[in-house]
């Protein structure tokens, strides 16, 4: 399974992704764009390269000992078109003293949303991204036997079918206050479905 995957900014070998695995992330890493000049693109990502029309869905459970502002990990979908690089990341992010479910969709700039974790968890969540039949990319939070909608990414439907996409788990530790410790993010149940 690991041979299907590549990495960018990963400081260790790609682990066996068929069961539980970790991504260790150094401080000073992020995936974020904010006007007028913030462009951070050095977060470790383990990904499969596929085309938009081949992508059906991706799912993973993510957890960690979140403690520093903006510690994060989850699923990342990078869209590599000729005119720009867009991306969507979803998972857990540590904000206001607690872990939250976070979704960021970047077209020209990043749009960020947060919601509390489900009551069944204090440190983790199961996230799913789906290439929906209505042409949008949907991001879901799974738990309590339900699927909770987090974000509909409508610009996904405007992309060419052959557009290259990278999909897989990521971690980031922006460390805005100079934190020095690595972040270790735990993943399990990674499932990427293609046609």
From TrEMBL:
Q: What InterPro entries does this protein's entry cite?
A: ConA-like_dom_sf, DUF1349
| Pfam annotation, one family | DUF1349
PANTHER family xrefs: REGULATION OF ENOLASE PROTEIN 1 (PTHR35332)
Task: Please name the source species.
Answer: Exophiala xenobiotica
| Protein name per the record | Beta-xylosidase C-terminal Concanavalin A-like domain-containing protein
Q: Which SUPFAM superfamilies match?
A: Concanavalin A-like lectins/glucanases
């Amino acid at each position: 399974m690991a041979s299907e995957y590549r990495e960018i900014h990963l400081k260790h070998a790609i682990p066996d992704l068929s069961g539980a695995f970790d991504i260790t992330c150094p401080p000073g890493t992020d995936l974020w764009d904010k006007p007028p000049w913030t462009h951070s693109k050095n977060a470790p990502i383990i990904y499969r390269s596929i085309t938009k029309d081949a992508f059906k869905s991706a799912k993973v459970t993510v957890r960690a000992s979140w403690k520093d502002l903006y510690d994060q990990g989850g699923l990342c979908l990078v869209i590599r078109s000729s005119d720009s690089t867009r991306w969507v990341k979803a998972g857990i992010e540590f904000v206001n003293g607690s872990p939250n479910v976070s979704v960021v969709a970047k077209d020209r700039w990043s749009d960020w949303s947060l919601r509390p974790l489900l009551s069944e968890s204090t440190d983790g969540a199961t996230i799913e991204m789906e290439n929906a039949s209505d042409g949008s990319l949907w991001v879901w939070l799974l738990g309590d036997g339900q699927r909770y909608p987090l974000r509909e990414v409508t610009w996904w439907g405007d992309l060419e079918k052959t557009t290259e996409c990278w999909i897989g788990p990521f971690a980031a530790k922006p460390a805005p206050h100079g934190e020095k410790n690595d972040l270790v993010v735990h993943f399990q149940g990674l499932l990427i479905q293609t046609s």
